[in-house]
Design goal:
2 strands, transmembrane, cell membrane, ABC_transptr_permease_BtuC, transport, Iron ABC transporter permease
Amino acid sequence: MNNSAEVRFVDTLLTSKTSSFTKNGLILLGLTLVLITVSLWAAGLGAVAISFRDVCYILGQKLGLVSGAVDDQASVILTVIRLPRVLMGILIGAILGMTGASIQGLFRNPLADPGLIGISSGASLFAVSMIVLELHWLSEWQMLGLFGMSIMSFIGACLTAFGVYQLSKVEGKASVSNMLLAGIAINALCGAITGLLTYLANDAQLRSIQFWGLGSLGGATWETLQVGAIGCFLPLVAIPRLGKSLNAFALGEGQAQHLGINAKRLKIQLILLTTLGVGISVALCGTIGFVGLVIPHITRMLVGPDHRIVLPASALMGAILLTLADLIARTIVAPAELPIGIVTAIVGTPSFIAILIKNRR
């Protein structure tokens, strides 16, 4: 890229006109309103239907905004079963969408997603190991409690991400290209070991393994939601603050450093924040694919390449998609339930192919 092109690119990404911010602000506001509407609508659908009006009325009563009698059965179903699940879908969808956009910005590769650096495969490997090797005594430790499996999965995500980062170092500096290759190797290794353990599993264990392989929000409770919210709070707040640095990083590591960006610190920050967010999502809900891959593409088509807008918009888009996917998963074959990973793959694959065809044209 020549000097004049670099100047124009930096001027476009690092500065914005008021009209652009107004347009993007309206887009974010619109996505927020869509998310609220979809969430309230999804909370009312299920084996026992609750009207949109009743959903709003029950929530208003719980918040102390309205008074009056409500249907006790509908209130219990909404607040105990469906609301935690819908909120978990919003949280996990937001973190997957945002981390997907950040990883694509870090690798400067639109085909990258958080699973590329081994986070999802490492978490699944540790979970499957606990199931097949029957290491249930780990969950009985007082320090782990009811979240033993989730904590061990998170540890697996952290260890694999750390291994990928160490393997990518050249003369003490982590190379993005080497990180990509190391991630592919670690993913292949974790997948092979997981496949071997799956082969050794019995029928009961295979059903448990299915959760980690395809994902589900069925285990969402207020307790697990609190754990997820605490763990995902830092990535959701900190990653958007790195949007300006990612804009400069799009020029390449060398050019970003000339612009005053500490490339090494940026890579470490993004890897740590992505590992924290995605590791917790896999630990609580299993592996949910395609959200971190497809959502950033759709978002950039809507708002452009500026990561300061792409990151929060990807979070909102991811939350909307996962909420709708979970709604389909729990209603389309009711009273049974589809793994949510199947739904996101069915929706995500055609969307991704359509994007590829459009870009090729």
